[in-house]
Write a structure and sequence with these properties.
Radius of gyration: 18 Å
Strand order of the largest sheet: 2-1-3
Helix content: 40-55%
Strand content: 5-15%
Number of strands: 3
Oligomer: single chain
Order of helices and strands: HEEHHE
């Protein structure tokens, strides 16, 4: 049995999937450090921000401040698709 899908439903489904799969990147390689850190992380904005803050505090000695969180959020970029 073949089921028919309305075009509108298909478009909405793709839009929902696209919004759910948006991933952000934090890449330490873009910023010089004494450790020559090469950590690269990706995921949802919320998860990458938390992981990057923990990394900055634990590995680079930064303090967890609103300013640090702002700087990390500003350095994050949207992940590009790997084809």
């Amino acid at each position: 049995m073949i089921s028919l899908i309305k075009v509108d439903d298909l478009i909405k489904s793709k839009e929902v999937k696209k919004s759910m799969t948006k991933r952000m990147v934090a890449d330490c390689r873009k910023f010089p450090s004494e450790k020559n850190c090469d950590v690269y992380m990706s995921g949802s904005e919320e998860h990458v921000l938390e992981a990057a803050v923990q990394h900055a505090v634990g590995s680079h000695g930064h303090k967890d401040t609103p300013e640090l969180r702002k700087q990390i959020r500003e350095m994050m970029t949207e992940e590009t698709a790997q084809v």
